[in-house]
UniProtKB/TrEMBL annotation:
It is a multi-pass membrane protein. Keywords: Cell inner membrane, Cell membrane, Membrane, Transmembrane, Transmembrane helix, Transport. It is found in: Cell inner membrane. The chain crosses the membrane at residues 12-35, 47-64, 85-104, 124-146. This is TRAP transporter small permease. It comes from the Bacteria. One of its GO terms (molecular function) is transmembrane transporter activity. The keyword ATP-binding does not apply. InterPro entries: DctQ, TRAP_DctQ.
Length: 168
């Protein structure tokens, strides 16, 4: 059970590391083959591009999980702590609504992409499977945001969400 919890708690980290490592390996192979053979590997560029896309979207969820999204807090710091929390909750609610909107539209595009498959040029895989990361991460991001609120409510530390903005 501890392994499942560890995988759940570190899912984005593991996936981001794997995607970035795959991208680095593909690009390194490309460099080696261009230097040694004089020509590159066609599939390595495509695979590195896809792994970069996956790393970016998984990074979005990772930032939400770590409460590390870019925020402009200068004006918020003028507000009392509870007012800051209300503004934070409102902006997070908007972010969740936007993410779910994109996720549901992404699912529709994924369905269409699987119904009318477009193959990637060199890897020969259905591009919809590569693009599935978009709705997945736009569902995962609001999940992680809500999870942070639930943890802080459970611990009785909800105000800590905005108190830390003063020091960071």
């Amino acid at each position: 059970m501890r392994i499942v919890k560890k995988l759940y708690d570190n899912f984005e980290e593991y996936c981001c590391v794997a995607a970035v490592a795959l991208m680095i390996v593909c690009l390194a192979l490309q460099i080696v083959f261009r230097a040694a053979v004089g020509g590159g590997l066609s599939w390595s560029e495509e695979l590195s591009r896809y792994s970069f896309i996956w790393a970016v979207f998984l990074g979005m969820s990772l930032a939400a999980k770590r409460l590390a999204h870019v925020r402009i807090t200068a004006a918020l710091l003028l507000l009392p702590l509870k007012a800051r929390l209300l503004v934070r909750m409102g902006t997070d609610a908007l972010w969740i609504a936007f993410s779910l909107y994109i996720a549901f539209h992404g699912l529709e595009l994924l369905r269409e992409g699987l119904e009318f498959p477009e193959m990637s040029p060199t890897l020969g895989i259905v591009k919809a499977w590569v693009e599935a990361i978009i709705p997945f991460c736009f569902f995962l991001t609001p999940w992680r945001i809500v999870e942070q609120y639930c943890r802080n409510i459970h611990r009785g530390t909800l105000l800590e969400l905005v108190r830390d903005e003063v020091t960071s």
